[in-house]
Amino acid sequence: MATRRQPLNLRGLMPGLFAATLLCAVALAAFLALWFSAPGAGWQSVFSDSYLWHVVRFSFWQASLSALISVGPAIFLARALYRRRFPGRTLLLRLCAMTLILPVLVAVFGILSVYGRQGWLASLFNALGWQWEFSPYGLQGILLAHVFFNMPMATRLLLQALENIPGEQRQIAAQLGMRGYAFFRLVEWPWLRRHIPAVAALIFMLCFASFATVLSLGGGPKATTIELAIYQALSFDYDPARAAMLALIQMLCCLGLVLLSQRLSKAVAIGVSHVRGWRDPDDRLHSRLSDGLLIGAALLLLLPAAAGGHRRRDQP
């Protein structure tokens, strides 16, 4: 280990600095071109627009709810996947990664095929004599789509955090009789809390800048994000001043969130573990049942992907 500070190799940093500068210059040039193409646009008139602030509030609200609903269950699902080894586990983890590359419209068609008024669940409820009241449009539809895309990603990232816990810590906790909440609080939570701010910030930014999902499932002016408002300002109203202001607000919000998440997240020093893949021999029945229910619920969450692929294959 080095005992003194090492000088930075500026020559090795030049390619990265050049690429970062180029990306910033392109983004800044696009923003300035949009701003200066709106002659006579005043900041005061834009700031006094009540609809603009409604869009900003809704964007924050739906992104915050999406991050909370995605990360919260992902903590328990990651713990269940770490504790259990079953046939198809590797395939399930690969399916979790598939939601990142699945086209948005295919996923939207799948969500409508499962949760829509003519979907699978509605048909099941009708067969049982019940009425299906859920509508996949509006805020609830946006949250459902965002959870479908982001909860599997959060699960994989938090599962990696659990796999980094040295096996010796788990062995000592088992010898001391730690179970349940005490084990989670003293052993697993210190590792998870270092990753949760970064994961939540990433999901927040993805949902904050969501476009195709909100355009398909938004359901009207009450459910509009900043990204969709920029599209409306340029395509329908041709108001470059409003579009530039919304773009500036979006960039500042995302930049502030990135800086905050980096400040809250601390680097994890991964030590050398001589015990790998250790499992607690005192595995209780209720723990296995609860983990099985969580994993089964995760499989149900991936149904829209199968429904979207089936619907796309049936189309001519």
UniProtKB/TrEMBL annotation:
MF-aspect GO terms: transmembrane transporter activity
- A Pfam family per the record: BPD_transp_1
Q: Which InterPro entries match?
A: MetI-like, MetI-like_sf, ThiP_ABC_transpt
Q: Does the keyword Cell membrane apply?
A: yes
Spans through the membrane: 58-79, 91-114, 134-151, 198-220, 240-260
Keyword presence, Nucleotide-binding: no
User: Per the database entry, which stretches of residues form a coiled coil?
Assistant: none
Q: Which GO terms describe its biological process?
A: thiamine transport
Query: For this UniProt entry, what's an example GO CC term?
Result: plasma membrane
Outline the extent of the ABC transmembrane type-1 domain.
Answer: 52-261
Instruction: For this UniProt record, give its keywords in alphabetical order, as a comma-separated list.
Output: Cell inner membrane, Cell membrane, Membrane, Repeat, Transmembrane, Transmembrane helix, Transport
Query: From which domain of life does this come?
Result: Bacteria
Q: Where in the cell is it found?
A: Cell inner membrane; Cell membrane
The UniProt entry, under Gene3D superfamilies, shows: MetI-like
The membrane topology of this protein is:
Multi-pass membrane protein
Q: What is its main location?
A: membrane
Quaternary state and interactors? The complex is composed of two ATP-binding proteins (ThiQ), two transmembrane proteins (ThiP) and a solute-binding protein (ThiB).
Family, per entry: Belongs to the binding-protein-dependent transport system permease family.
Report the protein name in the record. Thiamine transport system permease protein ThiP
Write down the species: Klebsiella pneumoniae
Lineage per the UniProt record: Bacteria, Pseudomonadati, Pseudomonadota, Gammaproteobacteria, Enterobacterales
